[in-house]
Q: What sequence folds into this?
């Protein structure tokens, strides 16, 4: 029997703009998905196309038990975390000997297949390796980890990443003169924010700016605006949509002492709050 876990992720900066080759910064966060795999002649497991694909690609059969701290379809990378943890547990239980890079690569291909060709390699990379990652085009670079204090606010409004990416695509085609400067500005502020990575106050201001630009791209939602405003009013340095928008989650960067106040404010607005920080382990054996 082998149990592995893998973390979720948030976008600190640059979602949507990364689709157009601009830089973005993603970070693994502490809530995890735990997966236990056991060799078995009569496998029992949760019905999931991700897990079916994991076994098919690794060429074995077994039973699976999943315990997840991550809500699915919220933009926190839960499908990537399930896939990565399952592949690692199969790899370990059956002694297959795949490397971490190979696991990230297989996981990305599984996400792509299950999601009909639309998947971002960011989720699987961040979940496998942990830490903070700068994404530019096809390249990914791990950044020195920062002890950022974060509260995630889930609007509980389900969203579709594919739909939101398509919506931004339509805007960009219809009004390139309007949309392109917004995407450029998101890229520019992502790079500027990296220079302030040790200054949470400034980082918070960049988050606020990023949120305004995401709203300008049309991926805002009344529920996320409510949570962003509540987080700022209760002491966050800054707050923004994280991920595709149109519902989903927000993140607030907070002074350590304000985390529970910010979480309370989010819950008072009918959001679900998660107090968290960076995960630097990535996929790990339990
Ligand atoms: O909602 P999420 O966490 O899957 O994030 C999507 C991020 C986008 O930039 C909108 C799309 C992508 O593939 O990077």
A:
């Amino acid at each position: 029997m082998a149990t592995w876990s893998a973390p979720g992720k948030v976008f600190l900066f640059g979602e949507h703009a990364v689709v157009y080759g601009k830089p973005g910064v993603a970070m693994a966060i502490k809530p995890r998905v735990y997966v236990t795999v056991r060799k078995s002649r009569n496998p029992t497991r949760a019905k999931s196309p991700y897990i079916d694909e994991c076994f098919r690609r690794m060429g074995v059969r077994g039973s699976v038990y999943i315990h997840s701290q991550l809500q699915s379809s919220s933009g926190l990378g839960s499908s990537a975390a399930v896939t990565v943890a399952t592949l690692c547990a199969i790899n370990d239980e059956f002694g297959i000997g795949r490397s971490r890079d190979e696991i990230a690569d297989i996981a990305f291909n599984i996400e792509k297949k299950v999601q009909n060709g639309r998947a971002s390699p960011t989720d699987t990379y961040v979940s496998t390796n942990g830490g903070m990652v700068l994404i530019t085009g096809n390249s990914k670079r791990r950044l020195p980890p920062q002890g950022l204090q974060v509260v995630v606010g889930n609007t509980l409004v389900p969203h579709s990443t594919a739909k939101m990416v398509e919506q931004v695509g339509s805007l960009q085609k219809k009004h390139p003169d309007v949309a392109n400067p917004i995407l450029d500005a998101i890229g520019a502020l992502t790079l500027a924010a990296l220079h302030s990575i040790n200054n949470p106050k400034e980082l918070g201001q960049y988050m606020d700016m990023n949120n305004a630009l995401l709203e300008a791209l049309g991926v805002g939602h009344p529920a996320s605006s409510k949570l962003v405003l509540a987080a700022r009013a209760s002491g966050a340095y800054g707050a923004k949509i994280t991920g595709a928008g149109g519902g989903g989650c927000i993140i607030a960067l907070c002074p350590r002492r304000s985390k529970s106040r910010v979480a309370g404010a989010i819950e008072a607005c009918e959001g679900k709050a998660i107090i968290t920080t960076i995960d630097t382990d990535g996929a790990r054996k339990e």
